[in-house]
Each structure stands twice: as C-alpha cells, then as structure tokens.
Give the backbone structure.
Amino acid sequence: MSAALVIIDVQQGMFAVPGFQPYDGEAVVERIADLIARARKSHVPIFFVQHDGGPDHPFHRGAPGFAFHPKLAPRESDDVTVKNRSSAFHGTDFDAKLKRAGIDHLVVTGMQSEYCVDSAIRGAVERGYKVTLVSDGHSTGDTKVAKAKDIIAIQNDTMNGSFATVCKAEEMRVF
C-alpha cells in the first residue's frame, strides 16, 4: 500500500478571519509540520490542497489569505491542487494525480474539520482510498451552535471506523 500525506486548506486566511480562530490552531500547525518532516524523511509524497473562494473571499487567489501558513509552505516537489468547492476531488484533477502516483492510502490533515476535511475524506472513500484521519491534525472554529473542540470530536468519532482509521499525530506509523 502506498500512502501520501494530504494537507487541506491550512492557509493564512484561516488565521485572519475576524471572530474565527481555529481551535488549537498553532499546535495543529506544529503537528502537521512534524508530519511533513517525517513524510519527507521517509520519502512519502505530500499533497497540498488549497482553497480559492473566488472574488471577495479571504482565500481568493492573489489575496493574502490564499497563501499557505508559512510553517507549512509546500516545496517545489510537493503537489498542490487548487479547488473552489469543499471537496478536494470536486472539479479537480486530485484523484488523477493520486492514481498516477500510485497512492491508495491518504493520511489527512487540515482545516476546516466539518467542511473541507470531511468532504475530502468522504470523496476519498467513494473513490476506494484507504484513509487515516489525524485526530489532532485538523481543526475548525466555533460556530453559533457548537464549539470547535466539540465539532472536532464529533468529526473524529464520525469518521472512525466508518470512513477512516483515526489516530493522533504522534501515533502515526504509516511513515
């Protein structure tokens, strides 16, 4: 089985929207950075996904929020897929890139747990990929009805066993 590390939408805009802060955001970024270092050391491919929200959106291409978090900037050898929908697979060539690289197992991290991370996992499962969700490697912000900490816990519980294997970053043994 050939695994890849996937980093979804960890962009500067996630940390700049007034009234929205990713829960444990900087610690999540540090854990993802450690996973990237481990993946590079093991020669595991890394795929970045980047959201373009269109004009007047904080994640619009060319806007400061579109750039990746500076601690997680991709290298030239890393693949970057730009999307404009929640799922990394919708209207992109992400699936084709993974298949060309011989990938059949995705280790998923990123932002926002209940949106783009969830959509990517479900899209991956629909396409036959094995998925591992890094339980402390994704985040979101508080909403009007739920705290981010609870949303993350619900996502981890919902995904575990049904859509993905769930484990903490320090327990990751895929690479």
The chain has one domain: 3-171.
